[in-house]
Write a structure and sequence with these properties.
397 residues, alpha/beta, Metallo-beta-lactamase, Chain A, Rossmann fold, 12 helices, 25% strand, binds flavin mononucleotide, binds fe (ii) ion, FprA family A-type flavoprotein
Amino acid sequence: MNIREITEDVFYVGVNDRTTDRFENLWPLPYGVSYNSYIVKGSEKIALIDTVEIGTIRDYIRAIESQIGDAQIDYLVINHMEPDHSGGIPSILEHYPMAKLVGNRQTISMVKGYYHIEDDRFIEVGDGAELNLGNKNLKFYLTPMVHWPETMMTYVEEDCILFTGDALGTFGALNGGVIDTEMNTDWYWDEMYRYYSNIVGKYGRFVQKALAKVSGLDIKYVCSTHGPIWHENIGKALDIYNRLSQYESEPGVTIIYGSMYGNTAEVAEEIGRQLAARGVKNIKIHNASKSNMSYMISDAFRYEGLIVGSPTYSMQIFPPVEQFLIAMSTREIKNKVFATFSSFTWASAASGKMKEYAEKMKLDIVDSLDMKQSATQFTFEDAARLAENVVAVLTKR
Ligand SMILES: Cc1cc2nc3c(=O)[nH]c(=O)nc-3n(C[C@H](O)[C@H](O)[C@H](O)COP(=O)(O)O)c2cc1C
Ligand SMILES: [Fe+2]
Ligand SMILES: [Fe+2]
């Protein structure tokens, strides 16, 4: 069995990256990441769909040659031009001197800007354009801002395959198998939440537009640029992307706090206990100074409730907590049941500053508490009331 064969004459030629610590130099990769690329071999022409990150070229060329030997590549289709997929373009053009680059107007201008490639190597395609490979046909759908302005998807009707770019992708390298039917996919789903919320999160409405655009197609294989090929799990992957891109969340509460000397932390723990006492089962508490931003963003996207706590720090929000709030407002987070807690010693400021973020994010603050110096019986009563109010709104929704 050729584990790289998806359907007849369509092959996986992507590579795994298990050495990069952080994707975009930001987001941790505990299980690595794959850069997916595919060969579509028609009776007349051979097309390559996307390339890989520049550090993995050697494995990449070997993967291509393992599938097509010394045959030539006629077309390199660029669905997404971000360097994690376009880094291989110069090597491919050199290795396959007859290959033409296929992309839309924006792609071509970006590729020129990055790689300084001559005009005669490009073929420009627009929305709905087709490219014939003999017994297979490629059709292009422009899907801007999933996740850059030039992104598009490519459909092969003969095989019911949609090449989706970053959409429906996930962190996590491939461990042997490439199609979901060949592996246990359990651990990829958390990585999908993290991938979506960290990377694509800001572009929810564009994801919705893209999903609507391809919804009429008969799709049996979803081939994205990262992670497994979805075949039996297309519905599940679509459902996660569909919900996250509408900022729909699951039952549960994320608590993000900062604390220098443990007083604000004590309130965070008490709020957690008070929520649990009221039946909330999914509670994730993160110390913003220790937890990685990637996981805090992922949990905040995932769960309905979001409670943020901060000490006052030189009349500001404690910096790691503010970083988190910036990440939330950048991603235009919506639909959260939001509450805040804060502390100060001589002049309260964190509370008011968090209110400004709430206004920016257009989130109502269900309840808030502001503690002077350290917790008293009144602070615990406030924490219980805050939990009660959050749970009341959660159950009403
Ligand atoms: C560097 C620094 C700056 C601070 N700035 C303020 C301030 O501007 N206003 C204030 O009321 N308290 C200020 N504080 C006191 C903290 O807000 C107080 O220690 C904190 O709220 C207690 O919570 P914690 O134990 O969770 O850190 C400051 C503390 C430090 C260490
Ligand atoms: Fe991307
Ligand atoms: Fe990507």
